Amino acid sequence: MKYRVITLIAFVAIAFASCGPKSDTVNISLSPDAGTKYKQGDEVPVKATIPSSLKADSIVYLMDSVRLASRKDTLTFKIKTDSMKLGFKTITARVYSAGKPTEASTNILLVAAKAPQELSFTIEKTFHHDTTSYTEGLQYVDGFLYESTGEKGKSHLLKTDINGKILQSIKLDSMYFGEGIAVVGNKIIQLTWQEKVAFIYDKDTFKKLQTIPYNWGVEGWGMAFDGTTIYNDDKTNRIFLLNKDTYQPKGFIDVYDDNGPINEINELEYIDGKIYANIYTTNYIIVIDPKTGAVLQKVDLTNLYPIASRPLNIASDPENNVLNGIAWDAQGKRLFITGKKWDKMFQVKFTPKK
After folding, report:
1. 354 residues of the chain, pLDDT tens digit each
2. Which contacts qualify for 182-190: CB closer than 8 Å, 24 or more apart?
3. Cis omega (within 30 of 0) on the bond before 21?
4. Which of 39, 71, 115, 181 has its CA 20 to 30 A from that of 29?
5. How far apart are CA 20 and CA 183, in angstroms?
6. Which CATH architecture has domain 25-111?
7. Residue 77, φ and ψ in degrees, nearest 5
8. Where are the domains of the chain?
């Protein structure tokens, strides 16, 4: 009897539910399929498919929450991508019917328009580099090199001449692992690797002026400065754009070639309107469009300093003592390249590969 009562109650509940108000959920589909890849410059065809039961007054199209257009019809809407930043983009169609909106979303991946141009290099000069310097950041300013070195207990901020002679130095507390630097006016900002802080120094005295939180990136890696904006990466394919006065993020770009994301971009340098970056643990330097994140060029530096030619103390640990250090003499138009604990720094010239 008990089970019959339960069954009767369930039956009545279902009956009442079926007599209740119908759901007003409307299924709208949106093409292209999520994850479809396009190249910068392609037109992306977007089409909202609406059930016949829905009378659409208008359709508003958005990308990453930014309104693109409003349409009265359901014809294919084409999005131009010529000047867009690269990466994943969320596309939304907001359908209005009787004043009420219903949405559908999809996403696309926008990559670089073409494969990076390949560059070759020539060595113009060779200079001495300190083999105790685990190079994380390098910058040339007013005739001097400023260098940040890593490893806990061995991290420093250095000022040297072109031949590697140390003119000024400050050691970081042993709990910190030094990373990238940027010389910004009369100050120097230095990142730490995983300690989630950055240090601000007086450029002339190396006096530490401030410790600030670094809480926007996965880790602290490379830095560069273009005179207006500080660039900072964090081991992913993202480059943050930082305010030069507050050192806080104001935007970002994601780095892609024509195939996909380029991760572990590391030491950075800003040269004539482009960002140069080495890819960690590789012999490649890439050239990036700072507006879109597209990889424009790349150069293979495997033969710059072959492992067999290096002293035993760095040749025996090639996975750690890798290429890392790009500095640009803007006035003399000289490009300097070195690596972690390398005994040499090279002045090189890049040219298009024939």
Report:
1. 433 433 433 443 434 444 443 334 568 889 999 999 999 999 999 999 988 888 888 999 999 999 999 988 888 989 999 989 999 999 999 999 888 999 999 999 999 999 999 999 999 999 999 999 999 999 999 999 999 999 999 999 999 999 999 999 999 999 999 999 999 999 999 999 999 999 999 999 999 999 999 999 999 999 999 999 999 999 999 999 999 999 999 999 999 999 999 999 999 999 999 999 999 999 999 999 999 999 999 999 999 999 888 888 787 888 888 999 999 999 999 999 999 999 999 999 999 998
2. 182/137, 182/139, 182/223, 182/224, 182/225, 182/230, 182/231, 183/139, 183/141, 183/146, 183/225, 184/225, 184/230, 184/244, 185/244, 188/146, 188/157, 189/223, 189/230, 189/247, 190/137, 190/148, 190/157
3. no
4. 39
5. 69
6. Sandwich (2.60)
7. -105, 130
8. 25-111, 117-352
Task: Return the number of other C-beta atoms located less than 10 Å from residue 161's C-beta.
Answer: 13
CATH number of 117-352: 2.120.10.30
* Tokens of residue 18, six digits: 């079926």
The count of residues in the chain is: 354
